[in-house]
Each structure stands twice: as C-alpha cells, then as structure tokens.
Amino acid sequence: MPKVVATAPGKVTLFGEHAVVYGYPAIVTSIDRRVYVTATPRNDNIINISAYDLKTPGIIVTYKGSEVFVTTDYGKSLSAVSYLNKAVDITANYLGIKRGIDLKVKSEMPVGAGLGTSAAVSVATIAAYASAHGYSLSKDEISELGWRVEKEVQGLASPMDTSIATYGGFLKLVGERNEFHKEKLEVKVEIPAVIAYVERSKSTKEMVLKVKDLFERHKDVVNGIFRLIGEVTEEAEEALKAGDLRTLGELMNINHGLLDALGVSDARLNELVHLARVAGALGSKLTGAGGGGAIIALAPGKLNEVETTLGLRASITLRAKFGSEGVKVNIMD
Amino acid sequence: MPKVVATAPGKVTLFGEHAVVYGYPAIVTSIDRRVYVTATPRNDNIINISAYDLKTPGIIVTYKGSEVFVTTDYGKSLSAVSYLNKAVDITANYLGIKRGIDLKVKSEMPVGAGLGTSAAVSVATIAAYASAHGYSLSKDEISELGWRVEKEVQGLASPMDTSIATYGGFLKLVGERNEFHKEKLEVKVEIPAVIAYVERSKSTKEMVLKVKDLFERHKDVVNGIFRLIGEVTEEAEEALKAGDLRTLGELMNINHGLLDALGVSDARLNELVHLARVAGALGSKLTGAGGGGAIIALAPGKLNEVETTLGLRASITLRAKFGSEGVKVNIMD
Q1: Virtual CA dihedral for A115, A235, A230, A292, nearest 10 degrees?
Q2: B193-319 belongs to which CATH class?
Q3: Pick the CATH number of A4-186+323-331 from 3.20.20.70, 3.40.50.790, 3.40.120.10, 3.30.230.10
Q4: In chain B, which residues have their Cβ closer than 8 Å to the Cβ of A286?
Q5: What is the pLDDT of residues A39-56, one digit of tens each?
Q6: Distance from B52 to chain A by nearest Cα, in Å?
Q7: How far apart are CA A193 and CA B2, in angstroms?
Q8: How many angstroms separate the CA atoms of B60 and B68, rounded?
C-alpha cells in the first residue's frame, strides 16, 4: 500500500455570501494556499493524526475505536482534527473497508479564518485515505463525501467550501443544500489579492442567525439587499470573464456596503476594508460570514502597499492568487 | 427701530441622503443646537458683522458697499460670513429697503460639519434683518429667501437645510430643487442622540459627483441602492411616528451600509459608526454627504457611554435632541 500526499486549496467567497442562503448566486474561488495530507496505511485499525501549522505549534491525536488520545491540545486545531477523523470514517464506510492510517496534516492557512481550511482538510483527507488504500475517487465523489463530512461535524453546512476545494478555479453557485447548482467560470486574467484576517468574535452560525433575524423584522428591505447582492454577483461574473478588474473592484466595494447593511461587518473589518482602498486596492470587501474573520483586497500592482497597510491592523495578512487547482493526489512510493 | 435676536436650529439628515438627489424621499430633523443672530439697525448703509464661536475665536468683517474689511480672518468663519452678507442683501432687496445693520452671530455648532450651520445662519439673519426694520416675514417667505441665499453663495443648493432651519421639527422631503415637496412629521417621542464629527476630506460636491460617477457605471445596481434607501426612509417614517426607537436604530444601520455601498463612507466614519454600536447605541449612521463629516447615533439611556467612546476618535462630539423648534425672533427693546 503506497504512502500518498493529497492536497486541496483554501477558498474565498468573492461575491454573494449570506444572499446565497436565500437562493441568490455566489462566486467563490480557490486560493494558492493549500492543506497537505500525507497518508500512510497501517496494518491495524488505528487512526493516528498529526496536525502541523494549523496556526498552532502542532498536536497529535490518536483514535483507538471510540477512545481519543490528545498529545497536545490547542483548541482550534483539535476542531480541525475532528474533520480528519470524520473524513476517514465516511470514506472507509463508502469504500466498505475498515483499515487504519497515519495522517499528517500541514496547512498554509489559519484554521477558522473563513478560508475553508476545514473543507480543504476534509477533501484532501478523503482523497488521501482512498488513494493510500488503492482506490481512486472521482471529483464528484470526493466533493459529495466532503460535504457529508462537513454536515456531520457541523450539523449544517453549505456544499460551497468542499466544492471549491475539490474542483478549484472559480465557481458560480446557485441555491443551497438540496437544490444546489455549480457552474465553472472561465477566468483568464491573473488576479493578485491580499487577504487579511482578524480574530472572529462570532461564529458563522451566529451571523447567519443575525441576518435571519433582520430578515424577519425587515423582510422587504432585506430581501431588496439580497436581490441587489445577486445583481452585483451577476455583474461580477461578466467582469471576471472579461478580465475587467476595475469594475470587479467597484463591485466588491458595493457588495461590502450591502453586507454592512445586513449587519455582518464590524469596526475591525470595515477598518481593514477601507485601509486597503486608501493603500491603493481596486476594491475590497469582507469575505465569508463576517463578525470578524477575513477581508480580501484586489491589489494589482499594489501588493506591497496594501499588504503592509493591512499588516498594521490585521492579525494575519497573506497574498493569494485566485483560481488555483483543486484537489490533487501524489503517490509517493 | 428695535434690536432683535433671531435664532434658528441646526439639522441632521436622519435618512435618505444622496438618494434624495435622485428623487427618493429623505427625512431631516432639527437639533437643539442653534445659531443666534443679534441685529441692531444703523442709520447708515454699512453692514457690520461680528461672528463668534463659529469654531474659531471670532472674526469681525465690515462691508462698505463693495469693500470688505476683515479684522481677523479664520477661513471657515469667513465663508459663514458670506451667508450673512448675502442674506442681508437678498432680504433688503425683497423688502425694497436699503438700510445698514450691525449683526452679531453666535453658533452652538461647528461650521462645515454638515449640521446646516450656514442655512441656520442665513435663515436667522433674514428673520433678524427684517424684524429689526419692523417687517414680519412668514415662514414660507423666510424659507424661500434662505434657499435663495444658499443658492447664490454656493451656486447649487438643496432647499433641505433652509427648510428645516425655518420650520424645525421633522420633515420628510421628496424631490429636489424645482419639484420639491415637504411634509411635517408628527413625532411624539423624545430622541436622544450623539453627533460626532471628523474633519471632512471631501466636499459635498465631490461626494455627489462620486455617486453620480458610480451611478453611471453601474446604473441598475446603484438605482437599486437608491430605491432601497427610499424604502428604508418610508419604514423609518412609520417607526418615527410610532416612537419605535429599536426599529429606527436598525433602519439607521441598514441605511449606513447602503451609503457605504455608494462609496460615500470612509474608514473614519465607519469606525465611529461601529464604535457607537459597540458602546450601546440602538443604531448609527453617517449623516450628510460623507467623505468625513458627521455621524449620528441613537443612544437612549446610553448617552454617556456612546459620547465617551466616540470622543476617543472624533474631533467633536455633541449631544443633541432631535426635532427642536424652527426660526424664532425675540425683540429686545
């Protein structure tokens, strides 16, 4: 049985977060920051997981049947580890096998920053586990199993993150959950961006509920905001295809204001978004659920200026190119 | 001829700025910060103006026919003085008289903060000049002449500021310039607010042009934003009449996000707006044209907390009650 390394990219939502929950389109893209899962088959049924660089010095967790041994516990990393364990569980069931594995995870992204790290971990683990045991899953299978992992760990999950971790590139998504369609967008232009992150004070679930509460109190207005976010997303699709970065930036700025109107931005995200513009970004917006988390800034020709400025206030900044490839498996021996 | 003191209130735009330029409704209110113009008739044709507390130590300007003598020049105050001079000119013409006057102006508000100081100065000067010479103008006349003063000094002007300085209370305005309708709103509840101000980096004209540029590049989306601001304003009218401050606050937050989507907020205004919310305000938004300037925060029961927090970042903070009475004249002797 071979040792394999599977890798999957993180993601950012370019347009349409929150509105997507209400049936409007969203555009997501993969980024050139990835997680790497190395899988070595074992002769027993033990699943041994070592996690590195998940924004912590590293932890080791061992599962023996229903028992869990944590060598070092660092909160968020532990939560990432539950995705690995569930991914193994679901993939083994799907393949109808029950074999142990040593998994090593490395991540180029922080956990919990809204960059889809948990989805990338799930997707890469599924691909690694299957390949290490001699099976080859299709992308559709990996994506489907990845979504199942997220649903089981989180209770509820959008298929957005696991789709983009699997397929990479740019995806336009319409509808949530049961009636979910995705469409690959052909984007030819390179899009250099800066991502900046501040600690989240609210979970995605809390933010989705906050929007739901506002929606119920102000149906017409909030519906109008969703509809406008949908229109912005459709226009952004055209701008992406045409490689018109100026228009794309303007639409990001508009989308950010609309998210602020939904009550999902906060003082820190707004500061980062506006600092990026002052530093020369063509556009900037929060990305993901809000309540802290990440912003993205479109910064062709201004990467240094924008990253340096954002670095004054953000916990983490990173440069990213959009649209890098999806899940990939390398067999090592 | 009697010495008179005329006084007129400043104002804030509660809802609908920018969208009002495109035909959507706006709601403005007077605040309990006023300008006081003391007028003493003279036996010659000289117009002598002393300005105090216009955010400067005070200046004295003397007009003799077309000659201007400035005893102390402090930039912004000088610009306020041009409204006084024009108001005298227009009122004297309207009354068909040509008599000199000594005018003393005091202001409880800064000049150039978007609080309608120049309109209050114009309106109070018109009322003071007319009364000091034994004439009594109706509110409609004062409002109309005040608008004329603003148009002549600025080139272009909305009748919003001079209307609210004249009538006081809460006004709903629909349409701009030539087809302009106003409706007095009956508001029974007291609305305690905090206003915070940061230096403006852009003029009203620049901000209006910025929105126009975005409108021309993204007609559908920007039209959609205007329409939503209009809906928010209509809902706010109901909330005001019902005294529902919680809903009013939520609508302010939504309106702020929509203004941010139009590109008229900036890092400093957003910071103030969100600090106010963190400090306990029911809602907060930029008020006026944006590009720096003022924000308002609805802060019943939290005036201390909100004012103190805003004071950390703003150049000026002041408490204000909304809806105080319009122009008033007291004859002193």
Answers
A1: 30
A2: alpha beta
A3: 3.30.230.10
A4: none
A5: 999 988 888 888 765 554
A6: 37
A7: 69
A8: 10
